[in-house]
Design goal:
The complex is a heterotrimer of chains A (1020), B (467) and C (411). Chain B is an all-alpha fold and 467 residues long. Chain B contains 17 helices and no strands. Classes of the chains: A alpha/beta (1020), B mainly alpha (467), C mainly alpha (411).
Chain lengths: 1020, 467, 411
Amino acid sequence: MKSQKSSYWRSLAELENSAEFRELLEREFAAPPENVRLDSPERRRFMQLMGASLALAGVTSCRWQKDKLLPFSQQPENMVPGEPRFFATSMELGGSANGLLVTSYDGRPIKVEGNPEHPSSGGAANLFHQASLLSLYDPDRSESVVQRSGGARQVSSWDAFEALVKERTAALRANGGKGLRVLAEPSSSPSLADMRRRLLAAFPSAQWIEFSTEGDNQQAGSLLAFGSPYRSHPTLGNANVVLSLDCDLVGPTHPFGVANARGLVKGRTPDSGNMNRLYAVESTLTLTGSIADHRLPLRSELVKAFAAALDAEVSAKVLPPAELGPAQAKPQANFLKDPKVFKFLAVLASDLAENRGASAILAGAHQPPEVHALAHRMNAVLSNIGRTVLYRPELNRTPDRELESLKRLTEEMRAGAVDTLLIIGANPALTAPADLDFASALGKVSASIALGEYEDETARLCNWHLPLAHYLESWGDARAHDGTLSLIQPLILPLHGGRSALEVLALFAGDNRREGLDIVRRTHAALLGSDRAWNKAVHDGFAAGTTPPRFFPTLKPLSALQFSARELGDSNVSNGALELVFLPDSKVYDGRFANNSWLQELADPLSKQSWGNAARMSPKTAAELRVGEGDLVQLTLAGRSLELPAIFTPGQAEGTVAVSLGYGRHAAGHVGGLDEAGVEPVGANAYALRTIEAFHIAPSLSVARVGGHQDIATTQDLYAIDPVGKIGSEGRLSELVREATLEEFKKEPHFAREAPREPLLSLWSDPVSYQGHRWGMSIDLNRCIGCNACVVACVSENNIPVVGKANVIKGREMFWLRVDRYFKGPPEEPQVSFQPIPCQQCENAPCEQVCPVGATMHSHEGLNDMVYNRCIGTRYCSSNCPYKVRRFNYFNYHLDKVGVTPFNVVTDRKKLIQHMAFNPEVTVRARGVMEKCTFCVQRIEKTKIKAKNARRSIQDGEIKTACQQTCPTDAIVFGDLSDSASQVARLQALPRAYALLEELNNRPRVRYLARVRNPHPELA
Amino acid sequence: MAIWTEANPFLDPPAGENSFSRITHNVTRVAEAEKPPKAWFIALGISSTMLAIFGISIAYVFWNGIGSWGNMHPVMWGFPIVNFVFWIGIGHAGTLISAILFLLRQTWRTAINRFAEAMTIFAVMCAGIFPGIHVGRPWLPYWMFPIPNQMSMWPQFRSPLEWDIFAVGTYFTVSLMFWFMGMIPDLATLRDRATSTPRRLIYGILAMGWRGSSRQWHRYERAYLILAALATPLVLSVHSVVSFDFATSQLPGWHTTIFPPYFVAGAIFGGFAMVLTLAVPARQFFGLKRLIAIRHLELMNKILIATGLMVGYAYGMEFFISWYSGSPYEGFAFVNRAFGPYAWAYWTMVTCNVLIPQLHWFKEVRTNPWATLAIGIAVNVGMWFERFVIICTSQSRDFLPSSWGYFIPTPFDYMTLCGSFGLFFTLFLLFCRYLPMVAMAEVKAAHPDAHAAHAQAHAAVTEAARA
Amino acid sequence: MNEKASTAGAASGTAKSHGLLAEYRTPGALIAASKRVRDAGYRHWDTYTPFPVHGIDRAMGIKMTGLPWIVLACGLLGCGTGIWLQWWTNAVDYAWIISGKPFWSLPANVPVIFELSVLFSATGALFGMLALNGLPHPSHPLDLSARFAGVTSDKFFLLIQSSDPRFDERETRALLQETEPAGMEELPEGPGLDDRLPAYWTYAMVILAVLALVPFGLIAKARAEKSSQPRLHAIGDMDWQPKFKAQRANLVFADHRAMRLPVEGTVARGELFDDDHFYRGKTSSGAWARTFPKQVEPSDELMQRGNQRFGIYCTPCHGQLGDGNGMITQRAQDIGQVWVPPTNIADERLHRQPVGQLFNTVSRGLRNMPAYGAQIEPMDRWAIVMYVRALQRSRHANLSDLPEADRASLK
């Protein structure tokens, strides 16, 4: 096929104008890849498979494949083929940058990891950062400039677009940019801010609108509290008491999640005796709530009254200086009189008061500004400011409220006052409040330009779509959570000729600098003028010493807050008056990762749901609504309604229903949903219910069963299982996940040590005494926050296939590392435990003795090796594995092909792009073989070779498994047990250490460190 | 001996008739008939269709990957292994009847041993297919055989699956030899009665020039005795080894020392049920009512009760031990069997295997061929479910609740299952049509006339028996 | 029946007789007859029955067969095979660490040993029996007798062969008459198998035999001849994986290289290289450095290293002495190529060049000379430069450069 040889680096114009290229694009869009089909269970699809496989049989050859080597004619300096290099860069999400260290193999990025020196990352990366690599190689990313006129789609070129910009800007210059609007997501990038200034300077009457799905309540709260916008971030490492007001402060969706988790866990080391105490007041069970020592389920709308009451209590105890203004009067709310809440409040207040300057109070992004203001005030009252909560002036954001400006924009658009609209990165057609009907307004704009990675909902409604360069393809900058300047350097030239936002804006602003690199360097000319300084910053990934100095804002007295009946919890919350909370999703965020199959397949840490969202409600509420798990329900809010399955989440506040955003997309791609390709959307689109009034928290929700049931693809049992199973699993929980309170731990440090039953005795003596390395791992359940970052890291490192929804429902997910989630206690106030389960690398591995062909056996370093090539797939090993960590390739998942492994060269361009995401150092498993966690043996071997060449021994901590490397809380530690000084050996020697199911005498090499909770004595 | 005297009048020669020739004629006429009964054609039509389904489903699964079946995580084995164990079990009755009853001098076995052995062969063929096709890479199962190769790769002999290879392989070979050797004299009979050259040639080659020389008979009987003596421990070992697949692993519900005897008993139980399922129609359609007498059915039904009770005992004992072991995992595994999501399967098993066979306590039931047939089928169903319960239920819920799951078979699972029956019945029908269904020589040898030399003694015995 | 017998007898007059065949109605009669024949001392005789007749062995005086011993031998062989096979494969030839068990632990091996013992014994039993009975035995004179066909149904026969030393036409016949046979006939010597086979059967056999050879022929052919194509490989499994190893092809890119050049201006970890002197041979002012960077301490090892690297990378063109007369140059001149001869390193101009500039030339190349930056470590480049300096020095050396001691040796 000629078209598939069509080059990327030939001049784009030529390429884009060639007919074959267009025809190719069309075709590529037309045909969904087979993995989509593989998933679908129904008969018709099976027939398709048959067809496909037969076709396949046609093109394959039975000869051994020849392999070409293509070296550079002139190898660049310092680049050895097959030798990975590492580049520091950053990824911005939610207005904060996380420093990354990206592995580049032969000049291609193949793995994203945290940058150890970076203040936000500290070496960790969350699941979004990890998975962003797959997005880079997403074959659905848009490949060319597209022009739409009258619904007709036509592939265009950058030249054509530049021409348009020329004539447009000429006209705009005349009227000072009246009618020019830029819609962008809020960003911390100095260069972007600089570009904005230049643009607005060139077009004085143009406007720059910021809009994000997480909203700007934070900023508004700071305005309320201090009179001017400040950015704040906690340093939880110094806090003894932390209170989350409906804020998932360690969750992946929190912009500072990684840094917060690191800080919080720093103060939770029972072995050294210092344990901070975490309180969570939240409507929906979050990661923060699950690791909290005390959690109060409370409807989100009640948090405001709760905060006010707390302010009253705390101020009463602390007696703050007068300039901080009067405390709130304690609201006369009935729910506060509920003994449980009352006691909680009292104890919390005293605990906070006792820890002045060493406590932190954080409010959730979806809580109203008042709550944020109260949080700021209480932090001031408790003199935490400058100690556990740091402030800095807001440099980038526009002062006006997002929703208002967006509303104004849509009105202007309707009125035809906007002739040129440039949308950068955002996808308002999907995410804007439903009552604005942004989509229809778009039609009124004569020149609407969408700059995005995908040809998404918005792009399809604009006249122009420009391919946005992925952050791994472009130069840029952003600020870390503490304000440190972080730099973004590209790992590869844009695969699809995309351009960064800076470059496109430069076009409009008529800037003389057009290249991303020049633009960014100019921004920092003052600070990083010299090549040396600049290179150093690029090399490090951030500019050292750019962290803003500590800054003490002055609190302005807060006027008495008003409360509606609902906010006081007086009105009833029966069906029709239920509370609905919109939350960013733990996997697809606001929908931007909807086409990322790693994330889609990932299970939500708490509901364990993959491939889709659901209406989360407490079992009690569900019972009142007569809704069963998996039943299809219709959520109706102010005339707008949405159908999706219900799922039980224990710990959910009564009367609250939570839905996560970002699903139900029709133009995401072949993974997340694409209408023209016949790929149904994954999940349901909750934006359809979101309005300006009900943007975060909505009252008056009514839920109705519409009949019908939907299989929820969960990787672990749903909450509702049969009584026998429930009893059975609860019975053994205390053995599997061992926990104690701090008091118990101090009394009986070895509480976790003794096995529940005598271990079986071995008939045999070991055939080998493991001299040399004895690889082992310790997993600290006290540090694990269940954030799933390790799982995605493992997927990315080990080429783990994605199996799709239907196969997940069958229970065929392939993740080598899973994070088990268990609930204990009553469904109203459950205790949540997380337990990451990799292969336990048993020394007496039960899997080995049952394999008839010796496909799994033990290495002399005690690793339980899996020999893929030798495996014939009897699946006996998995049957005999007590931990069920072995995964089986029921199909050729990776090749998106059915049938026996094909031997024809892959020529499909989109597949080739996909395949670039594979780690070349790990086997890509074919159908019919078993696979499992290897302790990242490829990393072990690499380091061993390096050490051997240098004639030195391996340092402790030199080898990091992928999961360990990315863990924000260092819960996972890997190392050599035969070196008694190694960290892992010391951890496994701790009294808290225990082995899972050790009574089976498997002698696992993984040890878990029991979890210790720190309840307040009066609440315990 | 005694049995024969009471047996059926047909074998006591009417005046002027030679009973040996009657036996010969009676058995051979099935093989020599111009065209078999219509029922035979209908049955063959059905079974060969099922056989075709078998082929198609296997081909499809081979091409697409065994994900086409319902196998999942944690139920990694599912139907294929259930079918494997089921068929192996069926086989056992054949060897048992021919070998063990032979050693015990139970001469009534001669009426049924031939096609009981045939059943063994065909059942083991069905069983043997499954381990081959159930593996993830069905083009590689030969790696389980100790064949020297450039990968310097040997099988791993600590694996019960490896033991299976040898046990099942041996079992098939020995059964085949036993069966064929028993057939040599009868094949000679067919050869000598053959009218057309092809028949004479084919039967002639198979009979290898057997002419009934007494010197040959002497060695023949010796060899037969030895084979019987070898087959007896073999048949017991084979199902024990199959049970090791489960007994030697750690999975709660598998990790059970009672398995070997329990499996053997179950195998005999299911096997006899299958013999009955086949014998009743066979005697009906091929007019062997007088060779396979009600008496024989009744005897087998009694064995059915006995083995059924053993199996029932095993079910009970499993529960006791799991409680007695003190391991919560073991305990739960069995509670979960009886009351968990798969309770339906468990109670089907108990009903079919323990309750229904009790009907045989009533003489009118166990002497009624059609009741016998019905109960036989019920037991077959029950025995299939026993394997399903052991494999799928145990796997679906093991140690860590996080990895629990529920196995749901796909259409291909059912196709493969019923297809294997197609293979079995097709082979069996062909056997009935073209090979001596009853061991003529043995029947003759057991006949009173064969003992003219001891006519007196024999008569005395008869008297005793009558009295 | 009698006349039938007589006709047979008549026939026997012409053809050579195989023996006398007598038929009996009941097993009892046969046993009685056998006793007579046995007592008469015949040895080449046998009886034929549709089923094993109880008590005939004694009546005929048949001795116990040795079959059980054969079976025992086979069983022991099977047992030994089982032990040896498992011990050799799992404990010796390829010893694995399996579930922390010893390489050789008998219990796990018992089932296979048992099965193999049974398998071997059973095989021995069947084939031993066949062998001892001389089966298969296609053709026999008995087959000529029309009556004998009934032997597999309900007839009982006794045959005394003429080969028996005591066989005598008249006496033997008389002896048999006394046993009151139901009938008697004289068997002619039977013809061979070939006459009794239909022609098409023979052809079929031949054709089959030939066809059976074909595969072997093909294999032999394949082994003998060379094939230009790569070998047949039916199922790829994991032999070709959809990942891109070092320097592999990827059709996505115009140059079809999966390997991409790093983006201009990016800085990889550990590749800051901000020491201009060491990495670029320049001073802070940007001029060529006249001194070696501080990392490079002159030492014997370093000089040796430089010598060695020079030998590897430079001599092909510049020659051992650096006078620009390397192998390649010579070859180029031999074949009369248009060839710009490499610079003579000892050349005065180069001698005056600062070390930094030499370093730069090695790293970046000059005119025809390619850049060696990618192949030679910086430290090694400096070592080469140092060696080059030494070369230059040696080319321009005079006696005074030598230490006193060595001067004598030149004189």
